[in-house]
Design a protein that fits this description.
Elements (H helix, E strand, L loop, with lengths): L1 H6 L9 H8 L9 H14 L10 H26 L1
C-alpha cells in the first residue's frame, strides 16, 4: 500500500498495529469501519509526528529480496541435512 501511495506522490506513514490499538484504547474507540480506522490512524500519525514513508531504491529492494532468498535456501539446506 505504501509503495502505491509513494508512486502516486501521496504521503504515507507506517504504523505498527499494536501501537495503533494502544493509541485507540484511551479514546475508547473500537473502530470497525474503514473511515473510523482511517481517521484514528491519521490522528495517531499527527500526534506522534510519524515520519513519512520513503520507498527503497530499486537496488536496495533487489538486495533485500536476495537476502531473503539466501536465508530461505540456507534454512532449506539445514533442514535437508538433518533428514539424512
Amino acid at each position: 500500500m505504501l509503495s502505491y501511495l509513494a508512486a502516486a506522490d501521496l504521503p504515507g506513514v507506517r504504523i505498527n498495529p499494536r501501537q495503533a490499538r494502544a493509541f485507540a484504547e484511551p479514546m475508547e474507540s473500537q473502530a470497525k469501519t474503514n473511515p473510523l480506522d482511517a481517521n484514528l490512524l491519521a490522528r495517531q500519525a499527527q500526534v506522534l509526528e510519524a515520519s513519512l514513508y520513503r520507498p527503497q531504491m530499486a537496488q536496495a529492494q533487489a538486495l533485500q529480496d536476495l537476502v531473503k532468498l539466501r536465508t530461505h535456501l540456507v534454512g532449506y539446506r539445514l533442514t535437508s541435512q538433518k533428514c539424512e
